[in-house]
Amino acid sequence: MKQKYFLKLITITFMFMLPIGLMAQTVKGKVTDKSGGVLPYMNVLVKGTTNGTVTDDNGEFSISVKSLPITLVVSSMGFATKEVKVATTAYLTIVVADDNALEEVVVIGSRNPNRTAIDSPVPIDIVNVKELALSSPQVNLNQLLNFVAPSFTSNTQTISDGTDHIDPASLRGLGPDQVLVLINGKRRHTSSLVNVNGTFGRGSVGTDLNAIPSASIKRIEVLRDGAAAQYGSDAIAGVINIVLNESVNELSLNVTSGANFSKNANGQTGGVDGETINISANYGLPIGENGGFINFTGDFDFREDYSRMKEWEGNVFNLYNTVERFASNDGYDLTKLLDDDVSDVIQYANAAGINLNGASTKPELQTILSADNTTAELAARGLERKDFNMRVGQSKVRGGRFFANFKLPLDDNGTEIYSFAGLGSRNGNSAGFYRLPNQSRTYTPAYINGFLPEINSTITDKSVAVGIKGKIGEWNVDFSNTYGKNSFDYMIGNTFNASMGNSSPTTFDAGGFAFSQNTVNLDLSKFYEDTFQGLGVAFGAEYRLENYEIIAGETASYSQYTAAGEPITLSTQVPLTDFFGAGRPGGSQVFPGFSPSNELSRGRNSVAGYVDLDATLSEQFSLTAATRFENYSDFGSTVNFKLASIYKVSDNFRIRASFNTGFRAPSLHQLNYNATSTIFDQNGDPQEVGTFANDSRAAKLLGIPQLKEETSSSFSAGFTAKLPESNITFTLDGYVVNIDDRVVYTGQFQGPGTGTELDNLLAQANASAASFFANAIDTQSKGLDFVITHKADLGSNSRLTSDLSATLSKTEQVGDIKSSEVLKNAGLESTYFPEDSRVYLEEAVPRTKFNLTNSFTSGKFNIFLRNVYFGEVTEATTVVANQQVFSSKVVTDLSFGYKAADNLTLTIGANNLLDIYPDMADAAYGNRSSGRFDWSRRAQQFGISGRFLFARLSFNLK
């Protein structure tokens, strides 16, 4: 009730602010669909002004205007926007059509200004983000697309360092770096993070889609076909074009809050965890009289972490830890003892009642005191096994994002200035493996019960594009500059540098990295109406600058020290050891910092030119052709081409096909990334692995070939169909993509351990093994995509929209591993391209996805029901016998919406309504890591959050 009074007060106040002259004339009418059914809650706005209203329950409206003629703009979700010129006050009946995405003119895939999705010779999906944002449980862009576009895959990762904070995403099961992202048709910069831990997309660099607020987006166009000949490097799997919001005189405010209500929440005890809040606002202002605007979006994310680990089942304490406890209770630090002085160890062992069997030397004591004593020590310390759990699940996030979209027409001839920009920052918090008291990497005088180290990230993303478009003669000209930068900084907390002993801090600045890109484009196009039955000609040029940086952390974050406190630079130097003689690893535990030897700033430039033709040769047949030359300063030149055609068999049936070649230049990250990180094998055993640049001395010693570009060829064929009487559209497309020289992240090459040059290089990097980026294999991907859409008018203001879409894909290695003679002769090919790398490429994400979505609207009510089928995936391990296959699952989303007032909608619902989880890891396969991973961390189908319930308040004022 108070809300209605509030809305009335706003309306009355607004009306008093209007000039009296605006009340001079009144335009009345009603809005209906094609069958004559009235449409309530349609937005009716006087174009170019803030004067507007909403149709009532009978579909009628009344709006006061200062003078005539005017143009009314009628719009609403699910219907095509319609403009109506009004010259008199006669009663109007305005008929609007359904919003059929396939009939919408698209930006990508063709430079023909009249090309719609259904007339496109290549498959394009249109995702109406504004509509989904009202009813879908998902709010971030990666998850929204994962549940709506079957060819798209993205999931949150766990225990994977930086990849816990930026979700890898892909099209058609190919790599995250093989899909190109555009905003308003302009190339988007990639993330600064390269994925080097155990996840899908290992070794690749993707685009941080979650840096773009969903509320800033009007729609997303997904081109499911190679397009390097049109857009350049990376567009092997396809292109995602994000079209930003252009609305004006409309305030949209969404508040979404939810949490996991799951049987496995809170360490599998059940209840509620993973609370989230997302607040977004969007508003646009008209500029001038010719359709200019500026549209703003602000967005805030608050996400708590969750864990699905039940309890640690392995050893925690040995007998030496018991001795330590007795000494600590007495205020004594056993690490102060000299190497061979064991008198105090014996004293406290006797005090603890440990039977030493007469042992008096350190080797004898090491044998006895290494025995497990977990059960007794847990009881003595008042601890439980779950106190040593990790956080296996979702990282914590706090973040904010701001986007703006701007256009200012300068004349009536199409000349306009445009710009869009974004700025975002988010802080993440994730945890690594628990450092147990019985491990040498745990300095127990500081953490007597061990510790759970944390990775705190600060991810900053900024971008701006400025351009001008217009006509020179009869040519359309578009000149633009687009800049973007992504940076990732690490602050490691609740941790220790074990090799420093008591002098180690517990928080470290570990450094970070950054990537920036500046792209200048000049595009010219012209449409010849009298050539054939229409010919679009486009050509242009692009100049791009890229820069990649690694920033060093503080000294203690990366160094390993001897017992004398000297940094280790040679393999002959001995680090500080624990009681059992094991060397204590250096650097901040969980994520060693970047050292000055890692620090760098590398740049490159590329120049490209393209020609793109789109010809309608007859009423039935259209043909497009494109070719592109591109030269990179660091690896040379490439020429690619594309041919595509569509044949109109009838008004409602079309056949299409395409063939293209493509390429992907190795990213600056892959060429230059070098660092040391802690990698845990499938048994949970850690080692420090150094990633060395491809042109490093270590790479030469091992015979790692120099990086070069990936090349591809792909073919697709399919058809589109419409059944107008039944309001059904259908598309089916098959494809084959061949990629040569795919860049992968190698396995871990161990040093000989004999004081060789390689051993010294590893010691300087504080590492025991080395990995590299390399062109190791060729692959072939093939699959089938189909989409069926049905819209039904059920009468009484009721409508049902149903979409069934699916992808069936398969990626396989083709031919032998492409290694050097040095690697072959040393028998190291299985390390160069290990078995788990094959699984990551071929089977770690679902190869089959089905999506059935139903949206029912009746008056003020809306029901959204979606079922997504996720196909089987395989555990990525180096041991074939341990590769468990996880069966397919169906996840159900359901939401109910109610329009409580003209400007207010309340939505409640669930993602994963039935609380479905992937198959649990079977102990027989040896992948549970003593209870750490009851669900796979390496093969993600749809996540392990379980049921997510949410409520959303949507306020829309026009």
Q: Which features would summarize this protein structure in a list?
A:
mainly beta, Maltoporin, Chain A, 3 domains, cell outer membrane
Structure report:
- The two termini are 21 Å apart.
- The model is unreliable at 1-23 (pLDDT under 50).
- The chain is built from 16 helices and 44 strands.
- β5 (70-75) and β6 (82-86) form a beta hairpin.
- The longest helix has 16 residues, at 2-17.
- The chain folds into 3 domains: 2-99, Carboxypeptidase-like, regulatory domain (Immunoglobulin-like, Sandwich), CATH 2.60.40; 124-312 and 391-957, Maltoporin, Chain A; 319-371, no CATH class.
- 49% of the residues are buried.
- The chain has 958 residues and is mainly beta.
- It has a 22-stranded antiparallel beta barrel.
